[in-house]
Structures are given as structure tokens and as C-alpha cells.
Amino acid sequence: MNINIKKIISYFSVVFVSCFLFLTFFNPFVVNAKEGNLITVYIFHGETCPHCKKELGYLDTLSQKYNFELKKYEVYYDKNNQDLMGRFAKAYNANFNGVPVTIVGYEYVFGENLESTEQLIKKYGAQTEYIDPYQILLNYEKSGQIDPNIIKYGQTKTEDVSILGGVKLKDVGPIVFGVILGVVDGINPCMFGVLIFLLTHLISIGSKRKVIISGLIFVSTVFIFYYSVMFGLHNLLFNMSVILPYVGVFKVIIGVLALFFAALEIKDFFFYGQGLTLRIPKFAKPIIELIGRRGTYLSAFILAIFSSLVASPCAIGIPLTYIAATKDSINVLLTLLIYNLAFIVPSTIIVLTVFMSSDKIKNGEKLAVGQEKYKKYMRLFAGIVLLIMGFLLILGKI
């Protein structure tokens, strides 16, 4: 029997190549390996939250590369999930005042961020031992002690919250963002008018010492008042379960209001005080004068609160847009503190200027800041800022 060696070699070559290709691309016993050990990732999100959709999209993409199980909890419409998120916040010694929140091991990402999320998943997937975040929660509720391994938000390079669409917090920074808007808001002709009236009256009655003390009382009271009101509004808009599903709608409404206020401010640059304008109501002026003329420290305190209330038409625009813009801030208390410290800087400068110029004011010289031409530029500046913020809110960039 003749054996065709060439045919046998050709046959086995075809079989070998076929098996190789099958085992490489179609072998059912080989699973495409994903990077890292199996870990559990938790995400709290809102159904109508655009940042949440981006973060969920990131996690879906990362699931093709890394070995993790994703547990999703919608908090806008589910009270149980809201409660669970609150429990996690306590266990992680954090203030989860917005979504999305992605929890991996001892750390979390606040806001949508592909780079930060991937870094955490890669970091904890590489560890031989992984503790489930829910177990961390149970341990906390059992012992009442924060796990010492918890890494608070902002302590690592992984946290990088998006606040202006593609603009990251590390690029703009809460300090710069809060300082700019706070100073612009603090350049307020309404508040300047009340403060200058109080201080010049004190100079006229020959009490230079009272100028500095009353001025500082006035400024400090305004700071506390605005801080408290802004914190209350922030909690009302973003921490009430009834309102959470409509946060996007509220941002658009605030954006439209910002454009309306911007139009009035810019109008006052060209036609100051004419028609509808942002100023202290006429009925309040006699009351302000009555309180201011008493010249006591108590009157400075009362005047600060009363003028803050009646001057709200002058000042509501920028604080409202800032509150809407800082929904996903790392720490609400910190961001509002930065804003309001910046807010009182212009008023503090007014107090010091009046104090140092008391002799000139006694002789009838007026402060330049109280003149109409300067007030017009203040209006224009505030109007431009409101215009920008309004469009950013409406377009969903904040």
C-alpha cells in the first residue's frame, strides 16, 4: 500500500491550523479574562440626572475591561435607596448631597469622572483582599466607629468633580469659582447705599469709633444672614426627596430668572433707575433711615438684617445661580463659606474706606462709590455675570 506522505502532512497541517484558530477565537472553555479580582462597585444615581447617565456609561465601558459587579441604586424616586445612601454617607463620614456617588472599597467618587472611577476600580481590583462597601456600612452601624481606612473625598488625586460640563473642579477650583461670584455679588449698590448711609450718619454725630465697630457688626450680620439663607435654599432644592426628580427643571427655571435679572441689571447701565429696576423698595427707605439714625450697635445689627431682606431684589440673582451651580460640590458648607467671605469683602472695604476718610466726609466730600456713574458700572458687571450663568444653567453646563 502506497502512502502519500505529502497528503498526510497536508491533512494534519489543515487540522492543526483549524484547531489552533478554533481554540484561539471560539474556545468555549476559555473566558476572556478581565483585569483584576472580582470586586463590588456601588453607584447612587438619579433617573433624570445627566451626570449620572455619564457615570453609568463610564461604568458600562469599564465593565468590558475590569472584573467587577455593579450595584445600582436610583435615589430620586426610591425612598429606600435614599435612606441607604444616607447610611453610606454616615459610614464614610461624608456629605452625599448630590448624585452620582460611586463607591469602591474605602473610597468614593462624587460626580461623573471616568479617570477617577477607573483608577479606583483598578486599584481595588489589584488587591488580594477586598472588603465590600456594604460590609463597611454594617461594621460602622455595629460599632458606631468610622473605619480608619476610609479615605475622605478630596484626599486623593482620584476625586475630580465635573461642575461645568467638561470643566473639572481641579481646573477651576471651588475657591476661584466662589470668590469670583462672591465678589461680584458683593459689589451691590443697594447694600452699599444702606451701609454708607449708616456710617456717614455716625460720622456726622462725631462717633468715629462707632463707625468701625458698627460697620463690622453690619458686615458680620450680613455674612451670617446670607450664609444661612443660601444653605437653607441649597438643602431645599437638592436634599428634599420630593424636589430631587425635578432638579433639572429647577435649574432651567433659575437660569431663566438669571437672564431676567441680567436684563434688568444691564438696562440700569443705560437707563439707571428708570422703569422696572432691582433696588430697595420705596416703602423700606424711611424704615432704614429711622433705624440708621439711632446710631447704636443694635441698630447696626437690625439694619443689616432688615436691609438684607428688603434688598433681596437687588441681590437674589447671583446667589441663586451659584446655589444651582454648586449642587455637586464636594462640601456645601465649604463652598458657601468661600462665597460669602468673598461677598463681604467689598462691604468691608467700604467700612475701612469710610473710617479712614471720616475727616473728608465730615467736610462734605462724598465717596466715589456712592455716585451714580459707578453704580451703573456695578450693574453692568453683575448683569454680564448673570447672563453667562443663566445660559450655562439653561444649557445644562452647570
Helical amount: 55-70%
* Biggest beta-sheet profile: 4 strands, mixed
Strand order of the largest sheet: 2-1-3-4
Succession of helices and strands: HEHEHEEHHEEHHHHHHHHHHHHH
Strand fraction equals 5-15%
Mean pLDDT across the residues is 74
List low-confidence stretches.
28-32, 154-171
Radius of gyration: 30 Å
Q: Which word captures the global form?
A: elongated
Helices, by number, come to 18
Class by SSE composition: alpha+beta
Oligomer: single chain
- The total number of structural domains is 2
End-to-end separation: 85 Å
Counted beta strands = 6
Keywords:
four-stranded mixed β-sheet; 8% strand; 398 residues; two-stranded antiparallel sheet; single chain; 18 helices; alpha+beta
Describe the structure.
It is built from 18 helices and six strands. It is of the alpha+beta class. The chain folds into two domains: about 35-160, Glutaredoxin (3-Layer(aba) Sandwich), CATH 3.40.30.10; about 170-395, no CATH class. Strands 2-1-3-4 form a four-stranded mixed beta sheet. A hairpin with a 2-residue loop joins strand 5 and strand 6. Helix 8 (about 190-205) packs antiparallel against helix 9. The longest helix has about 30 residues, at about 210-240. The protein is elongated. It starts with a helix and ends with a helix.
